[in-house]
Amino acid sequence: MQQLTGLDASFLSNGARTRSGHVGTVCLLDPSTAKEPLTLDRFTQAIEPRLFLLPNFKKRLVELPLSLEPAYFVDDDEFDIEFHVRELTLPRPGDDKQLAEQVSRLHARPLDRSRPLWEVYLVSGLSGDRLAIYSKVDHTVLEGSDRDLLTAVLDLTPERRELPRRRSQPRSSGLGQLFKSAISVASQSLRVAQQTANVLRLAPSIVSAVARTVTRSVEEPAVEEVGRRAPRTPFNAAITQRRRWAFCSVPRTDVERIERAAQLSGDAVVRALAAGGLRRWLIEHESLPAAPLVAAVPADGLFARLPTQHADPKERLHALRGGAAVRPIPARLRTTDRINAFNLVLSTTAGPNVPLYLAGAELTGSYPVSAIADGHGLTIAVIRLRDRLYFGITACRELVPDADRLATYIRDELRVLKKAVRKPLEWVGG
């Protein structure tokens, strides 16, 4: 039996209709490398023997009466893997737009809290005989684990590695301990959200900047200027339950070429790509603010300015030099600070630089599907995997109905930045 932290419990209480706390990943697979077709049965057989590596994936939530304490995870005696592992087929032509639309619908649906909080779908019918895997899991299920579903089932070769089964552990008396503990209402302080490196490799968990806060003295200084004056945008409003998800990828070699020419870090180039794409989208929607946008970067605990106010791509690159556009997320945010602190969440994580396989099918792409929250209806998450950077854009459907256009503009921005650094930049070395 495992009790949720105060932070995780707060996410669950907020993870109602519009603010579901789950995150996900879309993986593209090339089934031609597998010896046998990847059917639903084979997919299930690839997952089920490895669930012992993921203890929380066979546990359900039990909440106390009157919510006196945070909920507990307890073993699910009626666990049924067929409820969690599913399949669907896209209608012809099975293009990327149809895949994104289907993922948007699936991601909008809350997880069933009477069962373990995860689902995974095998998606067939994609053009080019490709397969896709969409997985979603509540971030509380990942807490304290060094892996997620994909890291547990992926292999380094087309041949599946054999893993020894772990002996079953004696089960604790769930309800007795739950109600015994209910008599003492424990106050738990918020703590830093733990995102382990292995989980971040394949399923970055994107959360609000609130997840980076810890309880400290009330006298702590207020948010620094970069985190207090985020301008208003169309995606800084109340969200609905509906989602829009879009994706794109760019060559890693092109990003590294810009890094070298502009003397920027890889994360700074990602911010430049996001800034250019967002600027074009905001102009199209007649909503470009005069001030730069502010992104929360939860993995690094930072607020970062995105130089959307500059029309010249060289000026955008210059504005990102030297870390001047970055400030730490403070340990304590007041309610009004949270509302105005940032415009969107932007996260970049590094995945493994080696081939990966699922039941013999080679992984050819991995795109994050993130969480959003009221007031912050847009998240851009990026994962570096082998020779490409994979962007996943998650948004509220009513606030960003054309997330696919934003994905296109981010991809187009790469060409703009490559052209900008063809000649030596005057400010480099200055």
TrEMBL record:
It comes from Tenggerimyces flavus. It is an enzyme of class 2 (transferase). This is diacylglycerol O-acyltransferase. It comes from the Bacteria. Residues 336-418 form the O-acyltransferase WSD1 C-terminal domain. Residues 4-262 form the O-acyltransferase WSD1-like N-terminal domain. Pfam families: WS_DGAT_C (PF06974), WS_DGAT_cat (PF03007). The keyword Electron transport does not apply. It catalyses: an acyl-CoA + a 1,2-diacyl-sn-glycerol = a triacyl-sn-glycerol + CoA. Keywords: Acyltransferase, Glycerol metabolism, Lipid biosynthesis, Lipid metabolism, Transferase. Pathway: Lipid metabolism; Glycerolipid metabolism; triacylglycerol biosynthesis. The keyword Transferase applies. Its EC number is 2.3.1.20. The lineage of its organism: Bacteria, Bacillati, Actinomycetota, Actinomycetes, Propionibacteriales. Belongs to the long-chain O-acyltransferase family.
